[in-house]
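Tokens in:
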């Protein structure tokens, strides 16, 4: 897997960018949310990546922020949504706005995103409403695009990504955390408690 690339931005022609990493040019597809904030060509760039292998093709997707990659991956777990629609979501709204739309169940606003019809928007709300905080990856639910820094937040995000519901995660983390624990310690203790 390729999880991150740092190199020189050689070309940017939406939706494609090329990043030179040690003499190898990686061609990536990126959402417009990433394009808006890319540096000029010839400058260094660091991207979070998603490597996808399908029957007939291999694709690499690039994102400037971890929250974008997390949302890209999470949206594709909804039945009937693939990479093209996930890129359209990120090109149409910010991670924070998408989280808000899902939380309030705004079907009409979701259908304004290219590639999302009424039925797909309804599936997104039903399937992602409980997980949208974990998808946006942040200390403040649904708002931050940065990776949490404290062990409790890191453990909470990890447990939600494993499929635990937010209220369940809060209880598990509260019971499992002790002063000085790392995120790994909290996760290990929480998982043991969940299996009892």
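Residues out:
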């Amino acid at each position: 897997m390729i999880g991150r690339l740092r190199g020189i931005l050689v070309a940017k022609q939406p939706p494609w960018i090329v990043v030179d990493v040690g003499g190898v040019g990686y061609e990536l597809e990126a959402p417009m949310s990433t394009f808006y904030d890319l540096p000029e060509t010839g400058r260094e760039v660091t991207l979070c990546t998603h490597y996808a292998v399908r029957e007939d093709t291999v694709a690499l997707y690039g994102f400037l922020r971890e929250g974008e990659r997390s949302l890209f991956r999470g949206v594709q777990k909804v039945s009937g949504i693939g990479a093209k629609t996930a890129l359209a979501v990120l090109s149409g709204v910010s991670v924070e706005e998408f989280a808000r739309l899902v939380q309030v169940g705004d079907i009409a606003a979701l259908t304004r995103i290219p590639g999302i019809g009424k039925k797909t928007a309804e599936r997104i709300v039903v399937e992602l409403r409980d997980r949208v905080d974990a998808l946006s990856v942040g200390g403040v639910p649904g708002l931050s695009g940065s990776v949490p820094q404290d062990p409790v937040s890191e453990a909470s995000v990890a447990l939600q990504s494993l499929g635990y519901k937010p209220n369940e995660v809060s209880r598990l983390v509260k019971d499992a955390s002790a002063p000085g624990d790392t995120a790994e310690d909290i996760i290990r203790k929480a998982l043991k408690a969940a299996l009892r």
